[in-house]
Amino acid sequence: MTDELIVDRLDRPLRDLRISLTDRCNFRCSYCMPKALFGANHAFMPRRELLSFEEITQLARVFVRLGVRKLRLTGGEPLIRRDIELLIEQLAGIEGVEDISLTTNASLLTLEKAQRMKDAGLNRITVSLDGIDDAVFKAMNDVGFPVAQVLEGIANAEAAGLAPIKINMVVQRGVNDQDIVPMAAHFRGSGHIVRFIEYMDVGNSNGWRLDQVVPSKEVVERIAAKWAIEPVAPNYRGEVAERYRYTDGSGEVGMISSVTQPFCGDCSRARLSAEGKLYTCLFASAGHDLRDRLRAGASENEIEDALRQIWSKRVDRYSEVRTHDTKPIDTRKIEMSYIGG
Ligand code: SAM
Ligand code: SF4
Ligand code: SF4
After folding, report:
1. Is the CB of 268 under 6 A from ligand 3?
2. What pLDDT is recorded for position 90?
3. Is there a domain that residue 9 lies in?
4. What's its catalytic activity (predicted)?
5. pTM higher than 0.85, yes or no?
6. Which residue, among 10, 204, 26, has the nearest Cα to 107 in the 3D structure?
7. Tell me, what's the pLDDT at 331?
8. Please, which pLDDT band fits residue 330 given cuts at 50, 70 and 90?
């Protein structure tokens, strides 16, 4: 491993890599893959376009040489990709990787799958669950998927030794904000950590409006009106969630305030799409094709050089810029289901 770690133009290192394994999903969350746009005729990526597990591992190895320590598998729905545990095993074998995590809707998270992933080297899991009320959740995932089955997936992850589990809830005013306190109540004392996420203007298809965002400050107030909570210091510099703990010892909740308190200053994340394009920001409109280089026979050193070039020129700080005028910036952006959050 080289010690020549890289920083971008704003002095931010490259520490995290989010890897999207597929653009497909079995849910149609209205804020991410609305049915009107992701219907029966939607053209998903053909299989041959997707990076193979070997290609992903090859690229990940180069990212680790440049400073990446954490890998997160995402999608689309990553568990749709068959034998994901084989990829996890390959990634866990890369010297320098300190943490492998997975973000999933948990619909396919059987005990056997959770155990296989844990045994292959998965360290952590984040489960998305946008409501604890069945009707609210079914409407949000828009395929009628019940809360009980997601809870079963969470229990399976716990039984496989993946606890504590982070549970992400994207809050949209007028859609699921009435579930903030019930969600907190459900997971209080469970050892799992609910993280309330401000609804973001990712992609072009969700019709985002600022008045649908419930600021984290308001989420904190609603929870504090019910139980005493206090802020907790971050686990590490650049942690995106602000942490709060219940003073009675019943655990923690987190706030991810991407809209009201953007965290671009510490953003050390790169994103790799399922077809091998590198994005240096969640809100980027174009990616850098790494798959074509790989398939044209580029060596790992050549890919390392290309990555150095790309990262050293990086100036992205979309959320900070957008907040100043609070309107979505009018550029063509990539979809969340394509790049994985
Ligand atoms: N399908 C998996 C899942 O839902 O966990 C992984 C991919 S999903 C795109 C990753 C995360 O992005 C989920 O927690 C989802 O709720 C979040 N997300 C999607 N669109 C979002 C938006 N517009 N604002 C905030 N979070 C969003
Ligand atoms: Fe699928 Fe996740 Fe997007 Fe929902 S948030 S549509 S589960 S990719
Ligand atoms: Fe990072 Fe871009 Fe998000 Fe800012 S807007 S935190 S640079 S991904």
Report:
1. no
2. 98
3. no
4. GTP + AH2 + S-adenosyl-L-methionine = (8S)-3',8-cyclo-7,8-dihydroguanosine 5'-triphosphate + 5'-deoxyadenosine + L-methionine + A + H(+)
5. yes
6. 26
7. 59
8. low
In a domain, 4, yes or no: no
Ligand nearest to the CA of 336: 1
The DSSP string of 210-253 is: GGGB--HHHHHHHHHTTS-EEEE--SSTT-SSEEEEETTS--EE
CATH no. for residue 20?
3.20.20.70
Report whether pLDDT(263) > 90: no
- Give Cβ neighbours of residue 133 (< 8 Å, ≥ 6 apart): 147, 178, 179, 182
Range of the domain at 166: 16-339
Domain count, the chain: 1
Determine, yes or no, domain membership for 210.
yes
* Number of CB atoms found within 10 A of residue 214's CB: 24
On whether residue 2 sits in a domain, the answer given is no
3-state DSSP call for residue 315?
coil
Radius of gyration of the chain (CA): 19
- CA 340 to ligand 1 center in whole angstroms: 7
Indicate which atom in ligand 2 lies nearest the CA of residue 340: 8
For residue 229, list its beta bridge partners. 246
One-letter amino acid for residue 273 of the chain: S
